[in-house]
Amino acid sequence: MTLLDLENISRRYGPVRALDGVNLSVATGSRTAVVGPSGSGKTTLLRIIAGFELPDTGRVRFDGALLADGPAGVPAHKRGIGIVSQDGALFPHLSVADNIAFGFERGAPDREKRIESLLEMVELEAAMATRRPHQLSGGQQQRVALARALGRRPKLMLLDEPFSALDTSLRENMRKAVARVLQAAGITAILVTHDQTEALSFADQVAVLREGRLVQAGPPQAIYHQPRDRETALFLGDAVLLPAIIKNGFADCALGRVAVDGDHAGKAEIMLRPEQIRVAVDGATPQNGGRVVDVQFGGAVCTISVALADTALPPIVLKTSSVALPSPGNLVRLDVAGKAHVFA
């Protein structure tokens, strides 16, 4: 069942077209991540859903109701949509409890019980209720902001890069905690992020924006392994792009004969993710691999650059284990796992 429908959403700021005919559906109880480079329209799209801005053209439908029809729309405070911003936007002069209760109905008789329940939901101790925001860590502040948004009992939660100010390890923990809380509460969520890994791990639908247009939307694995074009492929992660000649489900390329997806024939460009290519020193010859030209040690996962044999292509960049790490100058054999993706 669909909770949110965006139909042909467009928005201009003078000569700049921030959004251009965006269509997107969000299923009830799902988690959608909206990604794209700076200036792609991510924040504008979120603000239109929230009601902070209205589209020039297009419609926003939410839970069966029409929230926006072009520049006419329902005000943000009447939409029943929660939002958590990058900085949490807590009131510094209020306690944690008062921040959480800010969105409650005036004179709510179960105020204390609800605050306690929300603190427990976001995995904060009840003793923190009397603290002020400046007495909390960044992760704790974001949990309070989430609890405040949950206090309004929204059907949809908008997350505007809520983890970007946190350090790497805390970001991952917070992302998992927020996903857990939203799933337990049965709340649909839309996350806007510039972090591709965050989007792929958080969402069950990823929407890629570029220059105001929706380039592709679908399950994370499909978007990652079958991107629509090379720009999307490179935006979502490292990729090995090679020219090839395709026939009968196989590509002849600089890596030899590689199985491909889809039904293609003739000249094309194929894509492999670096983790699909296994590096082996044993049995390597100039004919079945390449020569290592650079090695970057990174602990558990290291990066190597390999110049492919008998080709003028630039070296390809691969990830490999630090165990039996080759050295610059070594010949290596390159074995491909799975299928290469062919750009249509």
- CATH homologous superfamily title of the largest domain: P-loop containing nucleotide triphosphate hydrolases
Mean pLDDT: 89
Largest beta sheet, briefly? 6 strands, mixed
What is the CATH topology classification name of the largest domain?
Rossmann fold
Strands, count: 21
Into how many domains do the coordinates divide?
Answer: 2
> In terms of per-residue confidence, which ranges show pLDDT below 50 for 5 or more consecutive residues?
none
**Gross geometry:** globular
Count, helices: 8
State the oligomer: single chain
Largest beta sheet: strand ordering: 7-8-9-3-10-11
Identify the CATH class of the largest domain.
Answer: Alpha Beta
The SSE string, one letter per element, is EEEHEEEEHHHEHEHEEHHEEEEEEEEEE
Helix/strand-derived category reads alpha+beta
Strand content: 35-45%
Helix content: 10-25%
Indicate the CATH architecture of the largest domain: 3-Layer(aba) Sandwich
Q: Span from first to last CA?
A: 31 Å
Rg for CA atoms: 24 Å
Which descriptors would you attach to this protein?
about 350 residues, alpha+beta, Rossmann fold, OB fold (Dihydrolipoamide Acetyltransferase, E2P), 2 domains, five-stranded antiparallel sheet, 21 strands, about 20% helix, about 35% strand, globular
Question: Explain this structure to me?
Answer:
The chain has eight helices and 21 strands. By secondary structure, the protein is an alpha+beta fold. It has two domains: 2-225, Rossmann fold (3-Layer(aba) Sandwich), CATH 3.40.50; 238-342, OB fold (Dihydrolipoamide Acetyltransferase, E2P) (Beta Barrel), CATH 2.40.50. The strands form four sheets. It has a six-stranded mixed beta sheet with strand order 7-8-9-3-10-11, with helices on both faces. A five-stranded antiparallel beta sheet has the order 2-1-4-5-6, covered by helices on one side. Strand 4 and strand 5 (65-69) form a beta hairpin. Helix 3 packs across helix 4 (138-150) and helix 4 (138-150) packs parallel to helix 5. The model has no long low-confidence stretch (mean pLDDT 89).
